[in-house]
């Protein structure tokens, strides 16, 4: 949900031209993109609170042997995991690759990270690779039992901040390059008039069909001179 919403609100709206009205206002493009990402993050936070309340109510109602602190820890780490992948999609859009690549890259990172978290510990050769997975940072220490993994939380927050900052910088940089391109674009001008003030249409008239009236005046076609004298 977080990846799809981020890609749609940033890259999708940019490709569809729905951001033109906002970008025409005196507001920086990076601000428009960043605010939309923060809206997604706020939606994730609100959803996480609702999920925690519903699970907490179920634990109390059915007298489950689950600590409410453990449920809160899992909810927190999963929410940060979603923010990280949303940030990856935001960074891809920021570099101008569009909605499709943003969805593909973020989904690829999510799937590869999940596979490393689930499969790598089963092999002695691949087990060190599990530490590269964001899923391992969030859920590797079993937060439902052991509480909040503060080291994993710090990694999730730090990497999320880095990718969002990179995406914001890329958006601003892309806008600056577009302005430079517009300023350096050559201006179009029509063909130069020949000496004497004759226009381009008159300059295409063959020389033998022109007639000169007064010195310094443009040459006139023979048909025009005949009409004038007739």
Relevant terms:
single chain, 230 residues, mainly alpha, 2 domains, two-stranded antiparallel sheet, 10 helices, 2 strands, 68% helix, 2% strand, globular, disordered C terminus
Give an overview of the whole structure.
The protein is mostly helical and 230 residues long. The chain folds into 2 domains: 2-184, no CATH class; 200-229, no CATH class. The chain is 68% helix and 2% strand. A hairpin with an 8-residue loop joins strand 1 and strand 2 (220-221). Residues 197-203, 208-214 and 219-230 have low confidence and may be disordered.
Strands side by side in the biggest sheet? 1-2
Number of helices: 10
Question: Share of helix among residues?
Answer: 55-70%
Number of E-type strands: 2
Cα distance spanning the termini: 83 Å
Structural class designation: mainly alpha
Mean pLDDT: 81
Sheet of most strands: 2 strands, antiparallel
| Beta-strand percentage range | under 5%
Rg from Cα:
33 Å
The tally of domains stands at: 2
Q: Give, in order, the helices and strands.
A: HHHHHHHHHEEH
Give the uncertain stretches in residue-range form. Answer: 197-203, 208-214, 219-230
Approximate shape = globular
């Amino acid at each position: 949900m977080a990846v799809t919403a981020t890609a749609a609100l940033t890259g999708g709206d940019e490709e569809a031209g729905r951001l033109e009205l906002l970008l025409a206002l005196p507001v920086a493009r990076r601000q428009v993109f960043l605010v939309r990402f923060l809206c997604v993050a706020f939606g994730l936070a609100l959803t996480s609170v609702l999920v925690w309340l519903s699970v907490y109510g179920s634990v109390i109602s059915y007298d489950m042997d689950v600590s409410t602190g453990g449920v809160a820890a899992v909810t927190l780490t999963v929410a940060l995991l979603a923010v990280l992948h949303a940030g990856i999609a935001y960074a891809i859009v920021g570099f101008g690759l569009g909605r499709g690549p943003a969805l593909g890259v973020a989904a690829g990172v999510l799937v590869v990270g999940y596979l490393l978290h689930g499969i790598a510990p089963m092999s002695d050769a691949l087990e060190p690779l599990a530490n590269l997975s964001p899923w391992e940072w969030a859920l590797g220490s079993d937060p439902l039992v052991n509480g909040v993994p503060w080291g994993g939380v710090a990694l999730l927050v730090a990497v999320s901040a880095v990718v969002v900052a990179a995406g914001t910088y890329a958006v601003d940089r892309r806008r600056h390059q577009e302005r430079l391109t517009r300023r350096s674009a050559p201006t179009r001008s029509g063909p130069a008039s020949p000496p004497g003030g004759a226009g381009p249409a008159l300059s295409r008239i063959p020389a033998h069909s022109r007639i000169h009236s007064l010195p310094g005046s443009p040459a006139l076609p023979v048909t025009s001179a005949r009409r004038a004298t007739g």
